[in-house]
C-alpha cells in the first residue's frame, strides 16, 4: 500500500464519519494517491508535493448537505474554505473513481475522486489554457497528467 499524508486521511475519515462522503470529491494532486494505490505503483514524491487537499463540493447537493450537518449537529466551517473551482461543471459531471488510501500511521480511508482520464483532461487544460496559472504549476500539471496517462497506457488503471 502507498502512503497518503496522515492529515489528508484524517480529513477523509472525518468527512466520511459525518456521513458527508458522497458530497465531496478529491480533485487535485491528492487524487494521485488513489491512482497509485489502485495501480500498485509508487509515484515520485515530487509529483505529489502539495500542502492542501482540493475537495470539490457539488453545490447541486447543497440542500442534502445542509440537512446532514443539521442532523449531525456539527459544523466544519473552521476547517473548510470554499473557493469557486475552475471549470467546476466539468469536474462535477466527470465519472468517479474510488479507492482505499493508507496513511503512514496505518489509518485508512476511502478516497472519492474523478476518473483518471478526467484528471488527465483537467490537468492538461490547467497546463495549457487556464488564465493566470503560474508556470511552475503548469509544469506540475503536465507532469501529473503524463504520469496518470502512463498508468492508463500500461493497463494499470481501469
Describe this structure in words.
α6 runs antiparallel to α7. The mean pLDDT is 82. The chain has one domain. The longest helix is centred in the C-terminal third of the chain and has 19 residues, at 135-153. It has helices at 6-17, 31-39, 45-48, 62-72, 88-93, 116-129, 135-153; strands spanning 3-4, 24-26, 55-57, 96-103, 108-114. The protein has 158 residues and is of the alpha+beta class. Helix content is 47%, strand content 15%.
Strand order of the largest sheet: 1-4-5
Cα Rg: 16 Å
Q: Give the overall form.
A: globular
Structure classification: alpha+beta
| Total individual domains | 1
Strand percentage lies at 5-15%
How far do the termini sit from each other?
18 Å
Give the helix proportion (percent range): 40-55%
Write down how many β-strands occur, each being a DSSP E stretch of 2 or more residues.
5
Low-confidence stretches: none
**How is the main sheet built?**
3 strands, mixed
Note the run of SSEs as H and E: EHEHHEHHEEHH
Q: Mean pLDDT, nearest integer?
A: 82
Helical element count? 7
What's this entry about, in short?
The chain is an alpha+beta fold.
Amino acid at each position: 500500500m502507498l502512503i497518503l499524508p496522515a492529515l489528508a486521511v484524517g480529513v477523509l475519515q472525518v468527512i466520511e464519519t459525518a456521513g458527508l462522503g458522497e458530497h465531496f470529491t478529491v480533485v487535485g494532486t491528492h487524487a494521485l494517491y488513489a491512482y497509485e494505490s489502485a495501480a500498485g505503483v509508487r509515484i515520485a514524491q515530487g509529483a505529489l508535493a502539495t500542502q492542501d487537499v482540493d475537495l470539490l463540493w457539488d453545490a447541486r447537493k447543497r440542500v442534502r448537505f445542509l440537512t446532514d450537518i443539521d442532523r449531525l449537529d456539527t459544523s466544519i466551517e473552521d476547517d473548510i474554505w470554499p473557493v469557486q473551482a475552475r471549470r467546476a461543471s466539468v469536474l462535477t459531471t466527470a465519472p468517479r473513481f474510488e479507492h482505499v488510501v493508507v496513511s503512514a500511521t496505518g489509518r485508512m480511508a476511502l478516497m472519492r475522486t474523478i476518473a483518471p482520464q478526467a484528471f488527465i483532461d483537467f490537468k492538461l487544460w490547467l497546463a495549457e489554457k487556464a488564465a493566470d496559472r503560474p508556470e511552475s504549476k503548469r509544469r506540475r500539471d503536465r507532469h501529473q497528467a503524463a504520469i496518470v496517462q502512463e498508468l492508463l497506457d500500461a493497463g494499470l488503471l481501469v
